[in-house]
Amino acid sequence: MALPRVARPAAEGGLGASQSQLQWIVDSYTIVFAGLLLTTGTIGDRFGRYRF
């Protein structure tokens, strides 16, 4: 939902991102989310869901 707004020119309130920059934004979000999901899952398995 935010990608069209990010792609708008700076004069219209956006950042003026190109298609390749938008792809990097989506990919980096996915990589960070996957890394945090794996990390917190491992911590939850080791220490238990209630203690964590």
Helix content: 55-70%
Average per-residue pLDDT, rounded, comes to: 87
- Give the termini distance in whole angstroms: 32 Å
Number of helices: 2
Helix and strand composition category = mainly alpha
What is the H/E string? HH
Please mark out the parts with pLDDT under 50 across 5 or more consecutive residues, or reply none: none
Strand content: under 5%
Biggest sheet features? none
Radius of gyration: 17 Å
Count the E strands: 0
What overall form do the CA principal axes indicate?
elongated
Q: In summary, what is this structure?
A:
This protein has helices at 3-7, 19-47.
Account of the protein in words:
The chain is an all-alpha fold. It has a domain at 18-52. Helix content is 65%, strand content 0%. It has helices spanning 3-7, 19-47. The longest helix is centred in the middle third of the chain and has 29 residues, at 19-47. The protein is elongated, with a radius of gyration of 17 Å. It starts with a helix and ends in a 5-residue tail after the last helix.
